[in-house]
Write a structure and sequence with these properties.
The chain starts with a strand and ends with a helix. Strands 1-2-4-5-6-7-8-9 form an eight-stranded parallel barrel. It has one domain: TIM Barrel, CATH 3.20.20. The chain has 210 residues and is of the alpha/beta class. The structure holds D-xylitol-5-phosphate and zinc ion (ZN). D-xylitol-5-phosphate (DX5) binds next to strand 2, strand 9 and helix 6. Zinc ion binds next to strand 2.
Length: 210
């Protein structure tokens, strides 16, 4: 399973990225929050994201927890970005934003938050590259893993196989060396505080390998 590290709660985000450059993770996960879609404001300074995309050896995965996703997407042209993920309850037309993301040359994802029904994502599956299954309520790091996430992953995996889709399943929130056992069948794990709050990143990353 690939690891994407959320640097949301790093004391110094630039230093965290420099340290992560020496590990064998796959992506840096950027949690953009507008204080409207979620009750928290993070990564509103585009220069910070641009700078991180320059210093990071790994491509960024941008997780947009914002109402006006279209506005934010337009700010991310020509960066070291692999994917941009939006939520279902944005104020823009979802299909148009997916097109905007694809036109910029990035993969497009849709997130289903911890308390949302997984079935809501089905109508969009053939048009997206990634499903972000949230295993916490979006808005902050350091929360406990929601246990019914395993059922959601299993349902999605079966659906993907049955319908010959190629969507990647990423799981985000509350993942550590114990809870990672509940996300078997996912392709990518987003891990925040379990790595970023520790002094030895490598040790934490290795403990996630099963
Ligand atoms: C929550 C964010 C997550 C979170 C992950 O809204 O989307 O990416 O920061 O952090 P941990 O691993 O601490 O739950
Ligand atoms: Zn996230």
């Amino acid at each position: 399973m690939k690891i994407s590290v959320s640097i949301l709660d790093a004391v110094n985000r630039y230093e965290a990225v420099e340290k992560l450059n020496d590990t064998n993770i796959s992506y840096i996960h950027i949690d953009v929050m507008d204080g409207k879609l979620v009750n928290n404001i993070q990564f509103q300074d585009m220069d910070e994201i641009r700078e991180i995309s320059k210093i990071s050896k790994f491509p960024l995965q941008v997780h947009l927890m914002v109402e006006d996703a279209s506005y934010y997407v337009s700010k991310f042209a020509s960066l070291n970005i692999e994917s941009i993920t939006i939520h279902l309850n944005i104020k823009n037309d979802i299909h148009s934003v997916i097109k905007e993301i694809h036109n910029m040359g990035y993969l497009a994802g849709i997130a289903v938050s911890g308390e949302e029904d997984i079935l809501k994502i089905i109508p969009y599956l053939k048009d997206i590259d990634m499903i972000l299954v949230m295993s916490v309520v979006p808005g902050r790091g350091g929360q406990a893993f929601i246990s019914n996430t395993s059922d959601k992953i299993r349902y999605l995996r079966n659906y993907i196989i049955k319908n010959h889709l190629s969507s990647v399943i990423e799981v985000d929130g509350g993942i550590n060396d114990k809870t990672i056992k509940n996300i078997d069948g996912a392709d990518i794990a987003v891990v925040g505080s379990y790595i970023i709050k520790a002094s030895d990143y490598d040790k934490q990353i290795k403990s996630l390998e099963q």
